[in-house]
Amino acid sequence: MEKIYGIIGDPVAHSLSPVMHNAAFEKLGMDAIYLAFRVSPEEVGDAIRGAKSLGISGLNVTIPLKEKALFFVDAEEVAKRIGAINTIDFSSGTPVGYNTDGIGSLRVLKETTGEIKDKNVLILGAGGAAKAISFYLDVEGARVTIANRTKERAARLASNLHNADFSGLGLELEKRIEASDILINATSVGMHPNEDATLVSADMMHPDLVVFDIVYNPMETKLLKEAKRAGVKKIVDGVKMLVYQGAASFKIWTKKEPPIETMEKAVRAALNRD
Ligand code: ATR
Q1: Which of 66, 119, 222, 225 is catalytic?
Q2: Percentage, residues of the chain above pLDDT 90
């Protein structure tokens, strides 16, 4: 029987996870389909219970549900420590939650910069994605600063890491960026349809900064355009992270080796069609 997978979130209509996973299923000749379901935060528990009842095999969880969804699954230890999940596996009967965001971003950054240890990393945001990324960077020995609109949220996240500081946005941010090796946008700012938004502009960046945006729709966000304008040499878009976190989810659900190149090609083709 055809297996059903999907993504829950809001907004979710522009998610490229369906294109990516369906390409992988096709490549491996699997009888499976991946769909997008718009779910509000109030309904995340019902959605997870309903998915189990309907025999759905696996789900991804995206903005703004990653933290709330944790309460409705048996979460693996690392996801509990992060405080957010992006993957649910139903194959054991009960919903089991995982977080593959952090693994995905770490793989991207290591490919771009090599060693992460002792790097100064500024993370914009303090939500589920920021938590996942900062947790893995912290374990690798990076010096992390969490900068968030709601400063208390940044302080709380930083206090859960070994070697981290926190900041608000705006003026305060400028000095922090000066002292950073890597800047990561882990907020939804700049995501379709608010494509002109960015928390950091070119005048705040230096050319040796690595600038990485987790937003992949559009592929070149306003932040990345600003980075280009500032002469930044290493610019990383959100597609790679999407693919690597998706590949990790795929492996959890199917126990098969994900066809990474096929997945990345499918995502970039879909984005180029937009
Ligand atoms: P996720 O779990 O996917 O990371 P989230 O928990 O809703 O989603 O977190 C979204 C992040 O984007 C938060 O850090 C949020 O800042 P606040 O904690 O102050 O809400 C940030 N964010 C969203 N829209 C923003 C905006 N317009 N300006 C600044 N930060 C924004």
Answers
A1: 66
A2: 88
Instruction: Give the start-to-end residue ranges of the domains of the chain.
Output: 3-99+240-273, 102-237
Most ligand 1 atoms within 8 A of CB, residue of 124, 131, 149, 245 to mutate: 149
With a 6 Å cutoff on the Cβ, whether 99 touches ligand 1 is: no
Once rounded to an integer, what is the mean pLDDT over residues 29-34? 98
CATH of domain 102-237: 3.40.50.720
Q: Which CATH number describes the domain made up of 3-99+240-273?
A: 3.40.50.10860
pLDDT for position 129: 86
Q: What are the CA-CA distances from residue 231 to residues 41, 100, 215 (Å)?
A: 40, 31, 20
Mean pLDDT of 217-230: 96
Task: For residue 27, indicate whether it is catalytic.
Answer: no
Tokens 């048996």 belong to: 74
pTM of the model: 0.86
